[in-house]
Design goal:
Keywords: Kinase, Phosphoprotein, Transferase, Two-component regulatory system. Its EC number is 2.7.13.3. This is histidine kinase. Its main location: membrane. One of its GO terms (cellular component) is plasma membrane. The protein is of the alpha+beta class. The protein folds into 3 domains: 140 residues, Beta-Lactamase (2-Layer Sandwich); 72 residues, Signal transduction histidine kinase, dimerisation/phosphotransfer (DHp) domain (Helix Hairpins), CATH 1.10.287.130; 161 residues, Histidine kinase-like ATPase, C-terminal domain (Heat Shock Protein 90, 2-Layer Sandwich). A 5-stranded antiparallel beta sheet has the order 2-1-5-4-3. Helix 7 runs antiparallel to helix 8, helix 8 crosses helix 12 and helix 11 runs antiparallel to helix 12. The radius of gyration is 31 Å and the shape is elongated. The N and C termini lie far apart (67 Å).
Length: 397
C-alpha cells in the first residue's frame, strides 16, 4: 500500500474507544487497507456522513472508477447506484434512516456509476444497539458471470420449448386424427401418419438424451460402460440403419489403406455412446451437406491433406483408430470450425438445436479421444474422430 492509499484510509471517522469504530492509529488504518486489498470481492466503506471513505482495488475495478472519482465524495456523486426501476438506491434504501434494527441487506442486482450491472451486499454498522449508522460496508461483485449463466439458462429453456413443441404438436395432431377418423383414412395414409409419429417420438427421445448428456458432461457425472468394441461392426450396422430410412447409397462406409492391410484393433469403449457419436456426425452430414456422406475407418491416423496433425499420438501409440466423416456440402468456414462444438451453436440455417456436436465432443473426450472439424477435397465438411485403441492391461488376450 503506497502513501496515497494510507492517506485515503486516514480520511475516516476517528472515534477510537467506541465499539465498532474505525481504527485510529496509522498502523491500524494501514492494516485495514491491506486486509481490504486481500479480499476477492470489492469492498467500499461509507462513513456516517454519507461520504465514501475507502474502496479496495477490486471495487475500483468493478466500479470502473479511479480513487479521485469516488473517495472523499458523497455517495450521491461518487457512488451512484440505481435499482432495476431506475431509482436512486441510496435514497430509496436510506441506510441511515428507517428502523434502527436494520443490519443491512442481502445481495441485490444494481446498476453502478459506469452503467454496468453489480451484485451489491450491504452491512450497516452501529456503535450502539439502536444507535445511528456510523458505517455502511458494501461488498461488490461483477454481475457479468451471473447474468451470462442466466442467459444460458434462458437459452436452454427457449431451445427445449421450441424443439419439444414442434414434434409434440405433430404427434398430438396425427394421433387425434387417427382416433377420430380412423375409417376415413386409407392404409397408406395411416402408415404415413404412424411413421411420422414414430419419427417425431424418436426426435424427442434424442433431444432429451442430449440434454441429459449435457447435464452429465457439465457436472463431470458422465459414466461409461466400457467393454471391447469392434468399431467396424458398429459402423456397418449404423450405416445399414441409415440406408433403411433414406435413398440407397446416401451413406457409404469404407476402410483406409492401413485398415485394409492390417485390420483394425479392438477398442475399449462404451458401444452405446459410440453409436450416439457417429449417429450425430452422420446425421449432421446428411442434414447440412449434400450428396453422399462417406465414413472412412483408418488405423493410426495421419495428418490430413492440409498437413493437419491435431490428435496425432505418434509412434508410441500405433494402435489409434480414426473415423473420418465427409460430406459433399458447402463445408465449414475455417473461422467456425472450433465454434461448431460449442453448446447451442448452429450455422446460419438454424436447422439444428446446436446440441449434437457439443455432445459428440464431450463423449469422444470422455473416451480419451479427440474430434475436430476440417475441410475435404470436394469442398465439403470433414469431421475426424480419433480414439485410442487396445484393451486394458488387466484384460488378457
Amino acid at each position: 500500500m503506497g502513501p496515497d492509499d494510507e492517506e485515503v484510509v486516514h480520511r475516516t471517522d476517528h472515534r477510537s474507544g467506541r465499539p465498532g469504530a474505525l481504527p485510529d492509529t496509522a498502523a491500524e488504518l494501514a492494516q485495514l487497507g491491506a486486509m481490504g486489498e486481500l479480499l476477492p470481492d470489492g469492498l467500499v466503506v461509507v462513513g456516517g456522513d454519507r461520504v465514501v471513505r475507502f474502496a479496495n482495488g477490486e471495487a475500483l475495478r468493478i466500479l470502473e472508477r479511479t480513487p479521485a472519482e469516488i473517495l472523499d465524495r458523497p455517495v450521491s456523486e461518487g457512488l451512484t447506484l440505481r435499482d432495476k426501476y431506475g431509482r436512486d438506491w441510496w435514497a430509496h434504501t436510506d441506510p441511515w434512516g428507517g428502523l434502527t434494527t436494520r443490519t443491512g441487506h442481502r445481495e441485490k442486482l444494481l446498476v453502478g456509476p459506469a452503467g454496468n450491472d453489480l451484485l451489491v451486499t450491504a452491512r450497516y454498522l452501529r456503535a450502539d444497539r439502536g444507535g445511528p449508522v456510523e458505517r455502511v460496508m458494501l461488498g461488490l461483485r461483477d454481475a457479468e458471470a451471473r447474468l451470462r449463466a442466466e442467459r444460458d439458462q434462458a437459452t436452454v429453456l427457449t431451445t427445449v420449448a421450441h424443439e419439444l413443441r414442434a414434434p409434440l404438436t405433430s404427434v398430438a395432431g396425427f394421433t387425434s386424427s387417427l382416433l377420430r377418423r380412423w375409417e376415413r383414412f386409407t392404409d397408406a395414409q395411416k402408415k404415413m401418419m404412424i411413421e411420422t409419429i414414430e419419427s417425431d417420438a424418436n426426435r424427442l427421445t434424442r433431444l432429451i438424451t442430449e440434454l441429459l448428456d449435457i447435464s452429465r458432461l457439465d457436472t463431470h457425472a458422465l459414466s461409461l460402460r466400457l467393454g471391447p468394441v469392434d468399431l467396424h461392426d458398429v459402423l456397418t450396422g449404423h450405416v445399414l440403419r441409415h440406408e433403411l430410412g433414406r435413398r440407397p447409397g446416401s451413406v457409404q462406409l469404407r476402410l483406409g489403406t492401413r485398415a485394409e492391410q492390417e485390420g483394425l484393433p479392438e477398442l475399449w469403449a462404451d458401444t452405446d455412446r459410440l453409436e450416439q457419436v457417429f449417429h450425430n456426425l452422420v446425421e449432421n452430414g446428411l442434414r447440412h451437406g449434400s450428396g453422399v456422406v462417406t465414413v472412412t475407418l483408418e488405423r493410426d491416423g495421419h495428418a490430413d491433406g492440409d498437413g493437419h496433425a491435431r490428435g496425432r499420438t505418434g509412434s508410441d501409440r500405433p494402435d489409434a483408430v480414426t473415423v473420418t466423416i465427409d460430406d459433399e456440402g458447402d463445408g465449414i468456414p475455417p473461422e467456425h470450425r472450433e465454434k461448431v462444438f460449442g453448446r447451442f451453436w448452429h450455422g446460419p440455417s438454424n436447422a439444428s438445436t446446436g446440441l449434437g456436436l457439443y455432445v459428440v465432443k464431450g463423449l469422444v473426450e470422455a473416451h480419451g479421444g479427440s474430434v475436430w472439424a476440417d475441410g475435404n477435397e470436394t469442398g465439403g465438411a470433414r469431421f475426424v474422430v480419433r480414439l485410442p485403441s487396445g484393451l486394458p492391461d488387466l484384460v488378457g488376450p
